[in-house]
Task: structure prediction
Amino acid sequence: MITTDIIIIGAGPTGLFTVFEAGLLKLKCHLIDALPQAGGQCSEIYPKKPIYDIPAFPEVLAGDLVDNLMEQIKAFEPGFTLGERADTIDKQEDGTFIVTTNKGTQHKAPVVAIAGGLGSFEPRKPPIPNIADFEDKGVAYIIRDPEVYRDKKVVIAGGGDSALDWSIFLTDVASEVTLVHRRNDFRGALDSVEKVAALSKSGKINLITEAEVKEIQGSTSVESLTIKHKTEGEFSLETDCFIPLFGLLPKLGPIADWGLEIEKNAIKVNNALDYQTNIEGIYAIGDVNTYPGKLKLILCGFHEATLMCQSAYKRINPGKKYVMKYTTVGGVTGFDGSKKFAKKEQVLNIKDL
Result:
């Protein structure tokens, strides 16, 4: 049995950052994830997608963000159980928890942090009769490597952030980018909408609104699409690739059976204090949780992880007072005592201000 201070279910960005915050408090962590590698969606679904709302990074690829987080937590030597799904949580008489995976691996800790993102995912597929015939033959629901589309004609369908962001990104990769959306209005960020409009005006994106893809033609791979426009009727559009980006359907999976309070496919937590669930000692952070005013952003997950770790420290060390120190003062000390990320100590006296 694997024993640790905090079991983290989910090795996405929020789960990884939890290791860092816990490490500052001298708490050991072990992460469990059904995926074969750490990083969650950022590694599995869109490693090459740029992210724009991480502080101090005007732009960072999702995969690079994961690499940076892994480097940041290296000093704290977390454990990983990857390629296994957390199936059950059993609370013991002494208040600790045993988490068992689908492969029978058991983990024991006084604190469990669920950072499972939105759970497992299935793509929302458009109702095109023959679309399954062209999957992996020009049709894709997720862009993992944009270089696949180098110098190719690409048609993207959708009106959300993914459709907008990838349309913008692929203008520097594909030979031709077409964005098809069934309405004139988009659901994405205003900045992205404005960029797409500007690229359309300059001829770098072929923007077709009030239209839908109705059929796919091709012999062994995608060759053309039938587009049905609201006023212009049906017409054919030649392309090499068709990427419908209508989002992913999340499923909580086994999490829904753990006795936690669930609301709209998310775990309810006490955000006024420490993001604890209705079961004392089990926390939920990141996209997997819900509370009034919740925003599903990576940076919000980082904030939740920080406060959760402070509460976890008190649970693990009852009666022991912890004085928070800034990493800019003492640096980051690994469990072996080495200053792996140490910075020159700088103490500023109030009299110096």
